[in-house]
Every structure is written in structure tokens, then in C-alpha cells.
Amino acid sequence: MPPKQPVRVEPLNNVSRRITRWLGVSFPDQFPFVFVTGCPKSGTSWVAQLVSDYLRLPFPRHSPFPIGIPAVIHGHDIVLRKFRRCVYVMRDGRDVMCSLYFHLSRQVPEGDRPAMSRRHSQIFPGLVNRENVRENMPAFVEAQMKRPYSTPYNWGAHVRTFMDSRREGVVGVRYEDLLADAAAGLASVAEGLTGEEADPDRVRWAVEKFSFEKLSGRRRGQESRSDFLRKGEAGDWVNHFNREAAEIFDLHCGKTLIEAGYEADRAWIERCPPT
Fold this sequence. Notes:
- The protein is α/β, with parallel strands linked by helices.
- The protein contains eleven helices and four strands, in the order H-E-H-E-E-H-H-H-H-E-H-H-H-H-H.
- The chain has helices at 9-26, 44-55, 93-105, 118-123, 133-146, 155-163, 175-180, 182-194, 200-209, 212-216, 243-259, and strands spanning 34-37, 72-74, 86-90, 170-174.
- A four-stranded parallel β-sheet has the order 2-1-3-4.
- Helix 2 packs across helix 9, helix 6 (155-163) runs parallel beside helix 11 (243-259) and helix 8 (182-194) crosses helix 9 (200-209).
């Protein structure tokens, strides 16, 4: 008798996630979910934890089965028209690129010319050594513009769906604002979702419970490239973008970067080092 094959959990997670989303948008009264979404590595997991704790709703993660109770649902969807309640997390797209680079490169072996899967060869085209971050960034950004990780939309198109869908029930929060004052950011989200003044004690408890320091065991800004919570800082892109990476990002997302308020004009490109 042939040995039993192990159950592949990841595909089950993907199916259950699609079914859960369908339930939430098709039957919002029966399945009153709060969707927390944004580009990968924008701080969506952190915001989902904060919202879940404040609203006292479960936050089921990686479930192989569809969710059938009121809950906070995390994902990287665009802002869908039928989302009844949605929190969109926005982060500077250049920081998103850098955070995503370090997140995905953890799965690439160390050393020169590492053996990579076909998938990682597409994510890191031409990579010689993962530690040469600034040298690798242009090709990585170009790949993320053409075939984004975990979403069909690059950063500019993804953020645009939020900017074009300002309506009741859709609440936006910037990652950078949460870093500066997490309590104020969470209070604003809570008021937008509930229509009521935020409870300062519940806000404070949630912020303390899910602080970077408590979750990572490190001070904010203290980097650990091997961890999911790498650095918890804004503006790190200046350490890793060269002129070529900046020009590629600007070509695809420059207009949205300015309209989202992260830059006043395109002068930032010239401030990046040539190499």
C-alpha cells in the first residue's frame, strides 16, 4: 500500500480565503467581516491585530476552512466595491519594495550565484548575491511592477483603488502615521469603523500589546533581516535605492507617489546615488 501523501495546507488556505471573501461581500449581514487590506509589507498584519483587539473580534489566520463568524479578515486585495467595512493600510511604495525584498530574500541561499527555484529567479532576476541590495534593487523593482508578489496589482495601481473609493465604511490609515502615533492612528480607524468615539483604554491596551518591541523583542529601528518584523521604520528606502531603481519606480508609480503625499515632485529621484 503506497504511503499517504501529506495534506498540502497552503492551497487549502487559498481556497478558504477566497470562499471567506465571497461570503463577506455576498452576504455582509450574515458575515459581518472587517477586511484589512493593503499591499504586502505595508503593515497590514499589525493593523489587523490592532483592529481585532480593539473591536474584540477574532483574527483567524491561515485557516484551512472558510470563516463563518464575525471576524477581522486580513489580505492583500484591492478595495473591492462590495466590502461593507474595510481598513486600507497605505505605506510609502519605496519602503514596501525594500521590506518586500528583505522578506522574500530570506528564502534565497547565501553566497554568490545561489541555486534558486524558478519562482525566486523570477522575483530576483539576475541576482548574484542577495546581500548586494542596492545593486539588485532595480531588477527587483522592475519585476514587482510587472508581476507583483501576492497581488495582481503593483503598488501604484493598488493604492489607486483606495484613493478612488473614498466612501463610508472604507477607512484608510498610513503606516507612517501609526509609527509616529499608534494610539491616534488606531483611534481614528476605530471611529471610522464604529461611528463612535474611540475608547482610550482599549486603544492603549491594543497598542501596548502589539508594539514592535513586544512582538519582536527588539527596539524599533534595530534590524534583523532574518525576521518577519525586520526593522519597523519609515524611510529605509533611502539606504537601498539607487538612481536606476528610483527611475523604474517613478515610471510605474511616480504619479501615485506624489498624489498620495509621499513626495511633492520628482526631485527625489536625483537625490538617489547613481550606483
